[in-house]
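Q: Entry one of two.
A:
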Amino acid sequence: MKKRISATKHSQTNLIPLPLWLRRSVGRASEISAVQRIIKQRNIQTICEEGRCPNRGECYARKTATFLLMGPTCTRSCSFCQVDKGHSPTALDVLEPQKVAESVKLLGLLYVVLTSVARDDLSDGGANWFVKVMETIRQSNPHTEIEVLTPDFWGGREGEIMQRQRIATVVAAQPVCYNHNIETVRRLQNIVRRGAKYERSLSVLKWVKELDKSVITKSGLMLGHGETETEIIETFKDLRKVGCDNLTLGQYMRPSLNHLPVRKYWTPEEFKKLGEIGRSLGFYNVRSGPLVRSSYYAGQDCLNSLVKA
């Protein structure tokens, strides 16, 4: 009788060793602990901490942080993401807008990124909550620039009409940059992004530009799921067709054995080449590197894009 090998054991024996270029310190402990203390005292989340971003110490030192709104539990089940999922999300914390605004002021943040889990359980997908948090931040931090990184705001049965209305709600609040990540190439969408669609994500970026051309648009991919260079470049071209201004490219790093395995670690040289291709296609700014994440140098890149626009 053959001995059964569990899926976990099998995946462990096929792990690709982490290359040297991905092994780095997350930054100065003092900078990280100061932010952690403030957000924990207020019971709020940052994607920097929830997603264990390798650049969080560096971003904190540059007075930038990314807040995760509407609780830590997502209603989608993307197979690459570290964020909590699989059970009912929590009720909205009515004090969250004020807590985030206070944290921005205490930390002296000059550039804030607001993101959220997908909240398909809410009647507006959380669009009005983004606006409420933005307005509250501006009341006490009028000089802080705000970027949003939103889910696709899919309208369910009401489809594109509702989706566009939700996006319009956020755009009307005038974020300096609107980010929505397409995450991977067309072929791998169903595997990597359960509940999301490639064309739907392109529509988000397209509609933002139609609603307000002055808003910088941005998207990103996490490489390592088995995509090819040709597919990546096709994605670049699709993003440019809908007017996407900025692009981020980073390496997918498997959070646990319950997540998708890494199919390839792209080298720094390959990231450099892809960055150059992206720039040649007309993106205002491209951040391309193994440890790049959506909000890496977000403030600087947005400012550069406004100058070029």
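Q: Entry two of two.
A:
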Amino acid sequence: MTKNRTPIQYVYITLKGIAMGAADVVPGVSGGTIAFISGIYEELIGSINNIRPSLLKTLKNEGFKAFWQQANGSFLAALFLGIFISLFSLATIVSWLLENEPVLLWSFFFGLVSASVFFVGKEIKKWSLAAILALVFGAVLAFYITTLPPNENINSLPFLFLSGALAVCAMILPGISGAFILVLLGSYKTILEAVHERDFKIVITVGFGAVFGLLSFAKLLKWMFANYKNLTLALLTGFIIGSLNKIWPWKHVLETKTFGDKIIPIKEVSVSPLNFDGNPQIMFAVLLAILGFSLIFIMEKAANKK
């Protein structure tokens, strides 16, 4: 699994991690989408899938070097370093833009995610009725998820364990936001308060749920890619299409709720920029959407040239 890479290539992987972390801050945008369009998705799934009890046996019998290579440790370390850097730095900028310039931020991500539909879709080597049905199913399911109202706050430990597992599964799926899933499940406020108040019982419970979800779901995804790659890609393309409803830049917010120190819109409807209550900023929004759209193809061209 380990690839021979130069130090500068690991720097690029860290930069991709930074982009993933920044995307995960935005409710409705998935870090999995960024992983896919940056060309590391299957390696990420495979590397996570390699984290299993047999690694400890490798460490004991063959030493740390063999253990690190089997886990693809350099790749995961570089990627998660970028994610953590983003969460503690760039994410602050993204959060500020989300509150102060939402139309411009959503426009950029709308262009980015729209282009990823073409990027992921063209990887489907053979279209069939089953692939079309998988795409439609994924699109309808993702669209339906974006329209669901959140549940009331729930703080039972088994439910929080399940929340952690489901949220991390959503996080690595292109098109579905893990943070948005927590809001839907009613766990967002509980987890946010637990982090602020250092309630380690809840934090550890959610953490174990996330690890369980990540390891088990990665195994399923790897199996799907190995046996039903076209159907899997069609399903993921559908997820991305359906998620576009959530990141449409112009929305009327009908109802909000306060979760900790954050105000989250829980009921909103997409509208034309001409019917938008605030400043639609149409010209700048269109330019940023084009920039986001073009960025995907620039990245792809650079990767092909390399």
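A: Comment on entry two: Residues 10 and 256 are 41 Å apart (CA to CA). The beta strands are 251-259, 262-270.
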